[in-house]
Amino acid sequence: MQSICFVDCFTQKKRVRRVSEEVTVRDFFKRMLTTFTWIPKGAMQTTPLHSTDSAEDVRNKLRKMHPDYIEEEAGHLAAEDDDDADSNDGGDASDMFNRFGGGDAILAQVESDDDEEIDDTTFKPTDVPFVVSRADPQEPKMELYVYDEPEDNLYVHHDMTVTAFPLSCAWLTDGTMSLAALGTMMPFIEIWPLDVIDAVEPACLLGGCENSDDNYRRKLKKDKLKEDSHKDAVLALKWNTHVQHILASGSADNSIKLWDLNNQTCVGTYREQEKIQSLDWHHQEANLLLSGGFDGQVILRDCRRPEDAAVRWALDDVLEHVEFAFHSNLVYASTSNGTLQALEPRMNSTALWKLQAHDAETTFACSRQLPGLVATGGKDGFLALWDARNAAAEPTQIVSRKYKTGSVMSIAFHPNSPHLIGACGSRGQPLVYTMTQDLATIF
Q1: What is the greatest pairwise CA distance in the chain?
Q2: Residue pair 231/251 in contact by the 8 Å Cβ criterion
Q3: What pLDDT digit, counting tens, does each position of 199-231 carry?
Q4: Is 4 exposed, middle or buried (0-12, 13-18, 19+ CB in 10 A)?
Q5: DSSP string covering 52-72, please?
Q6: Where are the WD repeats (predicted)?
């Protein structure tokens, strides 16, 4: 079956008011959703956590309550870090944060005499959670939604007020909690604990000012930033699922940075000529990093051999999005003039094919579970599915429709469920789209 669900179909507490098409610029940005990020099934704690304390207060309380556990766990993680240094590889998710949030920032479970409140916030096995970023200039926020698959409806579970206009987001975990790395117009990265309701601040920051209080002043002074911090907005984020203590970020300061989440420091920086718009880690070779920027350059690097020359392709417009194909050795890239192109790492000159997918700015996603399935979304408001199983030929269109997202800002296949795709855009309504019927005769 084909199923399409928008947030205005149903919400947990109230219906969403439809807004007139005649809106001011401020209203437009207030509605706009800039990122859509799936949370894998089973990754959220069944019963969420509540917090009225700062992250540092929580850590201090836990150390006093469980000193033996903290000391033992710190020793275990330090040993794992020594092993990682020898192997130059990541570890299991449960071993990766020896100082950062996660394991030692677990809060008390929700305590309430209100059974209805607990039931409303508890995650059921059929719940499909995701996070979107809302670009409200007065109150920018991240919203954690739940898609109730059997009932085919969406509702906001809880939200988090963030520092500034959100631009990029990546889900990650420390093995105990679901977390979101958020890039904004500010020159630092916020790491938010998604399992915590009423969280008033991030678990930690990557980059920013030496004095953390300076990060949130009305006007941040760049001369107060840490030496390894970004110096401008963070436009792209990507977690390395193999070396799980590494997060990559791309910025309007023309740099890519690699962050060690264990100690919240920058462990590598790459400089480019223009702003970095998109990043992707290879799904099998953990050292390969792909990037795309405002100069039309698609760049493939081996991060273990920074002295080697990167593979570069020069495209004809600003890069909107780049990804490694999951089931081939190809690289895909989309541009602001609406094209989707396939690139071969061994042929760093021209594209294998170039598809005019949309009229203007285009983003896309590659399916993990269905080889050759690609989804695109454009500024024109259309979402399309493409059959790209023939790597040497231009993809064929399966379906193209215009939904209520408006200009599509972000699109993503669900990491566990091959039939689900999510998207969001300028109209402020996230979309969950079940593709079963559209793909029935093709995949």
Answers
A1: 65
A2: yes
A3: 889 999 999 999 988 998 878 888 999 999 999
A4: middle
A5: -S-HHHHHHHHHHH-HHHHHH
A6: 227-269, 355-396
Compute φ and ψ for 53, nearest 5 degrees: -100, 160
Quote the CA–CA distance of 124 and 358 in Å, as a whole number: 38
Give the rounded distance of the alpha carbon of 306 from its chain centre: 25
Alpha-carbon Rg for the chain, nearest whole angstrom, is 21
C-alpha to C-alpha distances, 59 to 124, 215, 371, nearest whole angstrom: 29, 21, 44
Where is 145: in which H helix or E strand? Answer: strand 141-148
Q: What is the DSSP string of 253-307?
A: TSEEEEEETTTTEEEEEEE-SS-EEEEEE-SS-TTEEEEEETTSEEEEEETT-TT
Residue carrying structure tokens 């215009």 = 402
d(CA 69, CA 87): 27
- pLDDT per position as a tens digit, 258-312: 999 999 999 999 999 999 999 999 999 999 999 999 999 999 999 999 889 999 9
Alpha-carbon span 286 to 90, nearest angstrom = 9
3-state secondary structure of 8: helix
Domains of the chain: 3-314 (2.130.10)
**In 3D, which of 7, 103, 23 has the Cα closest to residue 428?**
7
